[in-house]
Amino acid sequence: MTAYDNDNIFAKILRGEMPSNKIYEDEHVFAFMDIMPRGDGHTLVIPKVPARSITDIDPSDLADLIKGVQKVAQAAKTGMDADGLTIQQFNETAGGQIVFHIHFHVIPRWEGVKMRPPASAMEDPAVLEANAEKIRAAFA
Ligand code: 5GP
Predict the structure, then answer these.
(1) What is the CA(35)–ligand 1 centre distance, in A?
(2) What are the sequence ranges of the domains in the chain?
(3) pTM of whole model > 0.90?
(4) Ramachandran angles phi, psi of 132, nearest 5°
(5) What are the tens digits of pLDDT across the range 104-126?
(6) Which residues, in sequence order, are CB contacts of 1 under 8 Å at separation 6+?
(7) Cα separations (Å) of 70 from 73, 89, 113?
(8) Are strands 29-33 and 43-47 parallel, antiparallel or unpaired?
(9) C-alpha separations of 83 from 77, 111, 139 in Å
(10) How far is CA 140 from CA 75, 78, 88, 124, 134, in A?
(11) In testing the pocket of ligand 1, which one of 8, 12, 17, 35 has its CB within 8 Å of the most ligand atoms?
(12) Is the pLDDT of residue 1 over 90?
C-alpha cells in the first residue's frame, strides 16, 4: 500500500493552510468547491481522517464519508436546482486520481448539458463562491 502524503493539497485545505470555498463540515467530513469544475456546483467531499484511496480507508470511516456525500448531494441538487447528479470517485493514477486524499465528486447535472472535460479550466472565483453560496443555503 502506498503511504499517505500529509502534504497533499486536500490535507492542506483540511488544516486551513490553503483556502477553499467551504460548503459543509461535520466531525467526519469536509466539503468544498472543485476549482476546475466539470459542471456548475461541482463539489468535493473528503474525510477528515488521512486516507489515500478506497482500498485503504477504514470501513467505518468510509461509511461516515458516504453519509456526508449523500448530505452534500441533496444540498447540491436542491441548491443548484439540478435535474440529476453524477458522483465520481477515482483511485490511483491509473484510475484517474490526481489528489491522493480520498474524495468523492458531487456534480450537479441538467438535461442536455454535457460535463466539461476533467481539469479543463480554472473557474472564476466569483462564480465558485456564488455556486458555493447556493449549495450552503440548501443546508439551512
Ligand atoms: P481526482 O482526479 O483526484 O479525483 O480529482 C481531483 C480534483 O481536485 C480535480 O477535479 C481538481 O480540479 C481538483 N483540485 C485540484 N487541486 C485543487 C485545489 O487546490 N483546490 C480545489 N478546490 N480543488 C482542486
Answers:
(1) 7
(2) 9-138
(3) yes
(4) -60, -45
(5) 999 999 999 999 998 889 999 99
(6) 52, 55, 56
(7) 5, 14, 22
(8) antiparallel
(9) 7, 6, 18
(10) 9, 11, 25, 25, 11
(11) 35
(12) no
* Residue labelled with grid coordinates 462564480: 127
Q: Give the number of the atom of ligand 1 that is nearest the alpha carbon of residue 100.
A: 3
Residue 127 grid cell: 462564480
Residues ≥6 apart with Cβ < 8 Å to 119: 36, 98
What are 63-106's pLDDT values in tens digits? 999 999 999 999 999 999 999 999 999 999 999 999 999 999 99
The class that CATH gives domain 9-138 is alpha beta
Which residues are part of the catalytic machinery? 103
Please report which helix (H) or strand (E) contains residue 86, including its range.
strand 84-88
